[in-house]
Give the backbone structure.
Amino acid sequence: MGSSMRSSRSSAAPAGRQGQEPAVGHVQKRPQLHVVENRRASSSKVGRGMQRLLDWTRTRRSPAVHIVVAVLFLGTCLLGALLLRTQMSSNSFEASTVQQHITMLQQDVEEDQTKLSQLEATLPERAQKMKMVPAQGSLSIDLNGYTPSQEGTH
């Protein structure tokens, strides 16, 4: 913003100085203006982009620009909501399909468990049909504390 200094020459005097004449050769100068940016507010790229968009819309005189920006924003929001709803519906359908599959698998496991229980219940009867005799007194040997005797080794 390199603008040259402007001077103002007017016969109007500020309030309280109406009786005084400006000194001859004395020129009143306006203070130099400059833009101060708020660095915290525009720290992100999205924030800076939105700020540029807002500044751009404020500089236009026509309300059509505001209307176009608003319609684009609303259209984008509508499209985003539609896509989000479609994805949620798809995920819901997939979840219900998976839940049905899990339920079918659980039913299959229960059926197989029932068949196994029935087969185990009929096992003694089948063994008797095959002339098998159950063991009368089972004999078990515990070798946990076993130490070989010295006599047995040659």
